[in-house]
Amino acid sequence: MPHLHHAASGSLESMLLTVIIIFAASVYLRGWLHLRWTSFRIMNGWRAVSFVAGLSLIWVAVASPLAALDHELLTAHMLKHLLLMTVAPPLIWLGEPVRAWSQCLPRFMRRARGAAFRWPSIIKIGKALGQPEFCWLAAAAALVGWHVPAVFTVAMQSTALHFVEQSSFLATGLLFWWPVVHPWPSILRPDLSMILYLFFATLPCDILSGFLVFCDRVIYPVYLSSSHLFGFSALGDQQCAAALMWTCVTLVYLVAGAILAMRLLSPEKPLDNRWVPAVLHVNEAAPNVQQSLEVF
Q: Which of 62, 161, 199, 230 is the most buried (most CB within 10 A)?
């Protein structure tokens, strides 16, 4: 089955996405350096490493040579999905991008943002989007919906729909990991429900990957003509992709659950007030404390 992606348009899209990712990283690092100069406790160095690593994995998924291979191998296609949905989002949130990016906004924009966040409608929308139930359902729907054979085939043949597919994986991945990492406003102690949240999140992946592994026929015939070029049969490629998803998702969620469990069981540390003056120094010229803290 012929693919409608052309090398020229793919190259142009890759260049555009590369520029966007570099710009996002540059703005983040500028804000991170400003916070780092204010106080070493505000933004640790590992957060910047985590954010840049997350952006790098997004680049690998959408703008590197791997982006072209996803039309040739289901395994490469599945690897892209895992990077966009499972690996890159938690790294992005661990970098606390909201706090860093806000440093690069002009003062009037920070004030407007603070005022907008106090609107009842904005608060309601934010609470709804941050509900674990909604985040779980959105991620599960994206995972299962895009892997329905008919939908999968149409997306592989349409450049626009393929872009929507990748964007939805990244967006729902960010949504899914938001209540787990909770980057803003950050919390010191996780909730026990988040461990159960991660456990139940493995179920859609287990069902889908188990079906693909043990199925004795090719579910996605779009790869029948291309997988053999890499030494795979179409069925072997399908089983390899499913095994990759099964292993990667289980491992990532297991590590995240173990970290949450250790934080939950560790003794709570009191707030170190020695660093409060350094935090307030960021906007010490502001007319009141509320404006001083708007930067966060």
A: 62
